[in-house]
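for the writeup, i need someone to sanity check this before i put it in the appendix. the sequnce is what the collaborator sent (i think, or maybe the updated version? ugh). structure was predicted straight from it, no edits. if anything looks off just tell me and ill rerun, i have time this weekend
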Amino acid sequence: MKVALISVLLIANLFFSASSIASEKFSLSARVGQQVTKAFELYELGNIDKTLAVIGKIRPRSAFDKAYIKRFQGNLYWEKGDEKRALQSLQIAVNEHALSDQEQSQSERMLADLYLNQKQTDNAIRLYKTLIQKVPSEDLYKHLALAYYQKKSWNNLVDATSNGIKLSVEFNQSIHILQLSALFELKDYKKANKTLVKLTEHDPKTKRWWMQLASTYQILKQDKKALATYEQAYQLGFLESNSEIKRLANFRASLGAPYQAALLLESSLNSGKLAADSKNYQQLAQFWQVAREYDKAQQYWGKSADLSGDAQNYFTQAQLLQLLGRYEQMLTVLASIKADDQALQGKVAITQVQGLFALKKYQQAKLIAEQLIDNPDNKDRALQWVKLLESREADAQQFAI
């Protein structure tokens, strides 16, 4: 962060304070005063270069004249954007210790800001501390914190911002952001969480505060508060990406609300916020299944399978249809499965037998069961089914007679 350049008004104040005859100690000598008047007239006309030329020819003798001239020169260089020369001039002005207390403090502050801008961090810290000892202020502590930021001195930065916040009349967002950056560097998530709470309260329209707040709650194992924060961010319209929406949905499900998780994914798919792909349909199916909404779950397992051709997804759909007692539909789904895996083939066949048995189609069921006898993994079950089906066929024939 760069400190803003000095205003024209400050240079005007500089001139008029020097022109005052209230104190002889802090007055320019007559000769220097005349030359400064000429320089100021040029400055008022906007001729900074000519002003600097006149100032550069002045040969001050007293300590006050020298401090004043160098301060004036430093202000001009700063306004011109030549910070290095401004710093050199202000250093001389400050080191004379000849200005009035107010002007000395103003000069020290300008010099400290220049040190900060020029990455002369240790000098900036020293001078900010000197100024704070005189008259502590929120702004001085903020700039001291900026200097500590340059040094990556995180503990000192936290102390500086804490002192600045104590002196704040109103909420100062920039000083809280500085504090937050240091707390994250220190991995002090408990204090970072408290700072983030303040930032969300005073700046609720900034998305990153909500996301970082939720993350710190998660790190601190306060999952219910993390979920509540994500929910609030969602209500504020901040959760828009696939990953953000799915994170909230997974959070809902993990904390025992799979129904609400499914509703979120379903609405996001329907609105186009989430891509209508196999993976998202599969996750939605899983949420509905955990929520025991088996009809909705089977529909989305089917949609996922249609897009991916995944045989296992079709089989899961068939199992749910079986659970719902919709055997005809289940058999249709099973018939569409083209599985290379022998174990899955066996499961599909056994499930077909179960469906046909439920529909009392014993002969068709027995044909499938008999084909499974040659499969070592399913031989025992197949034999049991063949025996049961033969018994049912015999019963059916006897009843017909």
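The radius of gyration is 40 Å. The chain has a mean pLDDT of 90.
thx in advance!!
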